[in-house]
């Protein structure tokens, strides 16, 4: 306020001083419990959208990735293009990906979903393929020798042996999808990311931004713990070995 | 698609490239931010990675760091730095990007140096090499493929993420996407998307070539490695090989 003396034109009390934003004057704490309690409903709604997009993206990605990985395992002629294409998709920045999808899917959450599926698909195909290639050839041969049909061999031999790699892929895909969903703010469907940019737009309201960021991290932790539990439940033999 | 042809028209207009804060300016700004961020991260992460890797200690710390960095959305960090006392702009963007570039470089450097066969090191010592010579002539060449992978991963990640800075008042090519979106001019938005994606792919290609050039011994072009699935097993997969951004 001392600079006001040098600028008589700005002396009027109602004029905001040049170079000062409201952000400098009002208290703007990083953490504010009252923000969370006052806006609980909208936080919950954004979290719901975030969870829905993440779960759908990983599930759809896994459903597409499994047959692709099974096909890619059959020959190098198939695995090379699958892996090469996945490297390229992996490199495309998410903001560009969502922007490129807008003309096709508009400003709906489908834009975000399709982009997220593409990324989770890429992560999952690689991990699924690595898991399937890790199944020893003699074990598969033994399964065939025992008279298992290809479907039986897949269900009883390949999948259980590849399960750790599959679950590792699912965990990486889930964690990165939770983080990527925030970029959906470009089309207005970024889940908790809406809080992050919303707070930025609302005169740099820090409490809202921190709420969105912390919410994302908590969601990631929760999803990872959940998947770790599923992995434990699905592989009882691994526990027996460890004990 | 109408939008795509309009994007091509936009990209074909030389004035859009040469005018002040046109595509050329934005791309240079984008690259400058990215380069400073990656350099800062490398200066910070390489010595720590080398020290921890040669001592074979701190694996837990490195894993936790790379996992945590994966869980924090880049957009959140960019925004948090932008509203901090640093103020939004290129400085906040650069710092946020540097923070995100540290884990891939650190993890890969750590894994690379830890993976050096202790017997090779012992042989080098036995030949009378000093500690520094062992590090520079034996361990570094052996760890180099992973170290360059880490730097490449970090650089591609940073170039890709720098686009997000535009959502929170930063500069770079992401501005075209944000601007085009804000003005409902999808042609500009698509043009921006193509440029950002192209820059990321170009970074990947250039750095892959560069790391191929500096890696001693029998070498393969990184792009060709995918065509030989068997080659994946002997090289340890870097733990933080990056997340799409």
From TrEMBL, chain A:
Q: Cellular location of this protein?
A: Cell membrane; Membrane
The main location is membrane
Keyword Transport listed: yes
KW Cytoplasm (keyword) present = no
Q: Which GO terms describe its biological process?
A: glycine betaine transport; transmembrane transport
Give the way it sits in the membrane.
Multi-pass membrane protein
**What are the record keywords, sorted?**
Membrane, Transmembrane, Transmembrane helix, Transport
What sections of the protein cross the membrane? Answer: 50-70, 82-106, 112-132, 179-202, 209-230
Q: List GO terms (cellular component aspect).
A: plasma membrane
Annotated ABC transmembrane type-1 domain residues: 47-227
Q: Which PANTHER family match?
A: GLYCINE BETAINE/L-PROLINE TRANSPORT SYSTEM PERMEASE PROTEIN PROW, OSMOPROTECTANT IMPORT PERMEASE PROTEIN OSMW
Family of this protein = Belongs to the binding-protein-dependent transport system permease family.
Protein name in the entry: Osmoprotectant transport system permease protein
TrEMBL record, chain B:
Q: Where in the cell is it found?
A: Cell membrane; Membrane
Keywords in UniProt for this one?
Answer: Membrane, Transmembrane, Transmembrane helix, Transport
Broad class of the protein's primary localization: membrane
Q: Which domain of life is it from?
A: Bacteria
Query: Single Gene Ontology BP term?
Result: transmembrane transport
* Membrane topology category: Multi-pass membrane protein
Provide the transmembrane region boundaries: 31-52, 59-83, 95-113, 158-177, 189-214
Do the record's keywords include Transmembrane helix?
yes
Q: What Pfam families has UniProt attached to this entry?
A: BPD_transp_1
- Provide one Gene Ontology cellular component: plasma membrane
InterPro entries assigned: ABC_transp_perm/SBD, MetI-like, MetI-like_sf
Limits of the ABC transmembrane type-1 domain: 31-207
Under PANTHER family, the record lists: GLYCINE BETAINE/L-PROLINE TRANSPORT SYSTEM PERMEASE PROTEIN PROW, POSSIBLE OSMOPROTECTANT (GLYCINE BETAINE_CARNITINE_CHOLINE_L-PROLINE) TRANSPORT INTEGRAL MEMBRANE PROTEIN ABC TRANSPORTER PROZ
Write out the similarity annotation: Belongs to the binding-protein-dependent transport system permease family.
Q: What is this protein called?
A: Osmoprotectant transport system permease protein
Origin species, per record, is Geodermatophilus tzadiensis
């Amino acid at each position: 306020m001392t600079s006001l003396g040098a600028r008589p034109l700005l002396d009027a009390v109602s004029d905001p001083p040049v170079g000062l934003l409201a952000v400098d004057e009002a208290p703007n704490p990083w953490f504010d419990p009252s923000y969370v309690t006052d806006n609980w409903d909208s936080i919950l709604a954004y979290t719901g959208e975030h969870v829905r997009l993440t779960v759908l993206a990983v599930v759809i990605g896994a459903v597409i990735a499994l047959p692709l990985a099974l096909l890619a395992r059959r020959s190098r002629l198939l695995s090379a293009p699958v892996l090469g294409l996945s490297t390229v998709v992996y490199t495309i920045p998410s903001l560009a990906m969502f922007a490129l999808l807008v003309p096709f899917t508009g400003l709906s959450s489908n834009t975000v979903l399709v982009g997220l599926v593409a990324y989770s698909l890429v992560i999952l195909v690689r991990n699924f393929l690595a898991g399937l290639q890790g199944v020893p050839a003699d074990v598969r041969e033994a399964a065939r020798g025992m008279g298992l049909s290809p479907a039986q061999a897949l269900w009883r031999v390949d999948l259980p042996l590849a399960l750790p790699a599959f679950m590792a892929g699912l965990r990486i895909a889930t964690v990165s999808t939770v983080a990527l969903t925030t970029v959906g703010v470009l089309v207005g469907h970024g889940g908790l990311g809406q809080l992050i940019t919303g707070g930025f737009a609302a005169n740099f309201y820090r409490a809202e931004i921190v709420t969105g960021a912390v919410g994302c991290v908590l969601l990631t932790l929760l999803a990872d713990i959940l998947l770790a539990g599923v992995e434990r439940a699905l592989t009882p033999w691994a526990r027996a070995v460890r004990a | 698609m109408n939008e795509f042809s309009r994007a091509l028209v936009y990209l074909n207009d030389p004035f859009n490239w040469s005018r002040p804060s046109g595509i050329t300016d934005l791309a240079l700004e984008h690259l400058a931010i990215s380069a400073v961020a990656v350099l800062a991260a490398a200066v910070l992460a390489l010595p720590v990675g080398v020290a921890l890797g040669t001592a074979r200690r701190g694996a837990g710390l490195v894993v936790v760091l790379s996992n945590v960095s994966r869980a924090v959305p880049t957009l959140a960090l960019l925004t948090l730095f932008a509203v901090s006392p640093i103020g939004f702009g290129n400085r906040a963007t650069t710092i946020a990007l540097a923070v995100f570039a540290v884990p891939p470089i650190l993890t890969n450097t750590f894994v690379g140096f830890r993976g050096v066969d202790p017997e090779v090191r012992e042989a080098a010592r036995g030949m009378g090499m000093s500690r520094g010579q062992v590090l520079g002539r034996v361990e570094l060449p052996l760890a180099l493929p992973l170290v360059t992978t880490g730097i490449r991963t970090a650089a591609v990640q940073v170039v890709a993420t720098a686009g997000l800075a535009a959502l929170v008042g930063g500069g770079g090519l992401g501005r075209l996407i944000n601007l085009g979106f804000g003005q409902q001019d999808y042609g500009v938005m698509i043009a921006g998307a193509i440029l950002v994606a192209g820059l990321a792919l170009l970074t990947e290609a250039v750095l892959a070539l560069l790391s191929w050039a500096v890696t001693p011994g029998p070498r393969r072009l990184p792009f060709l490695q995918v065509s030989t699935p068997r080659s994946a097993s002997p090289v340890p997969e870097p733990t933080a090989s990056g997340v799409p951004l």
